[in-house]
Amino acid sequence: MNPIVDSLPKQKRQYKKRKSSPRKIFPITKDGIIEMYRANQQMAVIAKRYGISASSVSLVVAESNIPKRDPRLFAKKYEVDENFFAVIDTPSKAQILGFILTDGCINSRNGKAKCLKVTIKDADIEYLHFIREEMKSNHPIKLGHNFGFSKDSVMATLRIANRTIYNDLVKAGCRERKTYDLNFPIIPRSLTADFVRGYFDGDGGLWIARHSNKIRGKDSIRASINCTCEFAKSLQNILKNILGINSYLYKEPGVYSLKIFGNKQVYRFLDWIYRNSKFSMSRKLAFYEKLKTYYEEDLAIREL
After folding, report:
1. Has residue 12 been placed in a domain?
2. Are residue 43 and residue 135 in the same domain, yes or no?
3. Residue 117 domain-assigned?
4. Which residue range(s) make up the domain with 102?
5. Tens-of-pLDDT digits for all 304 residues of the chain?
6. What's the domain count of the chain?
7. CA distance 175 to 153
8. 289 and 203 share one domain
9. Gap between the Cα atoms of 23 and 70, Å rounded
């Protein structure tokens, strides 16, 4: 070993960087790339077809002055009528809007990814199939557990990510935090019953108060609707003006409840929302049909 030589700084071996010449793309190839691009083929597919990189495809497209495609074009894995809520003009639209205001929600992630999500118990999964069919969607309905319910409860969720649907629902009166901030939406008078049917299917309740009528000794049917105070007052006026029903507003923990008492009043309310329905929550519809049969039989007996 030579100490003098070892003390000298070691020189790195210099390599000449080879300059890569851009691959020449012939006019025929460019025409094919442009044709595939206009046919909405993905960049990766076009690049693989001609054995070039995706950046080369982008360069050809840019040089050809072709209008750029919507970047969300290939993000759409599923189909849906994104203009479904643009105008609430059918019974199904009004009903689904009412149901979304109870068991659905809209949310956005950092103001970009906007979606609609509806979650219900798996026993009522038919409602999600109804919504999906009306919206012409093929989005999957997923089953899973929800921490807000018991461990034995299986929940069904339909999630549709779409900016247009999100914006239209906001215009229709839906909010991201609607539990404490919800007003009765402006909808055609002819569709009010359909909207209330959807809302009642989501946050309505029916029960029988055993022997509450001390004078006659009969059971009393009652109905309740959970909502905000503003929503309840608007609905209260509608029930009074259209049906002549007297309802009562109660403040309960975290929510207001609009309640209807009396068999005849409850029947009149249920008949109003379920009489001409195309689809309804089966267990609540069954309650109405049973009550309807009771009143029809009672009326027939009286006419004898």
Report:
1. no
2. no
3. yes
4. 91-175
5. 555 555 555 555 555 555 544 455 556 578 888 888 888 787 888 888 888 888 888 888 888 888 877 666 655 678 999 999 999 999 999 999 999 999 999 988 766 678 999 999 999 999 999 999 999 999 999 998 765 555 567 899 999 999 999 999 999 999 887 777 889 999 999 999 999 999 999 999 988 876 655 545 567 789 999 999 999 999 999 999 999 999 999 998 878 999 999 888 999 999 999 998 989 998 899 888 888 887 776 554 444 3
6. 3
7. 27
8. yes
9. 28
Residues 165 and 92: their CA atoms lie apart, in Å, by 16
Cα dihedral 126→128→134→138 (10° resolution): -110
CATH number for the domain that contains residue 105? 3.10.28.10
Same domain, 211 and 270: yes
> Within a domain: residue 9?
no
pTM of the predicted protein model:
0.72
CA separation (Å) from 111 to 77, 119, 171, 265? Answer: 21, 22, 16, 45
Of residues 190, 175, 211, 174, the one with CA closest to residue 96:
174
- For residue 213, what are the contacts with CB-CB under 8 A and spacing of at least 6? 219, 220
Residue 211 sits in the same domain as residue 151:
no
Beta-bridge mates of residue 154:
145
Tell me how far apart the alpha carbons of residues 157 and 119 are, in angstroms, rounded to a whole number.
4
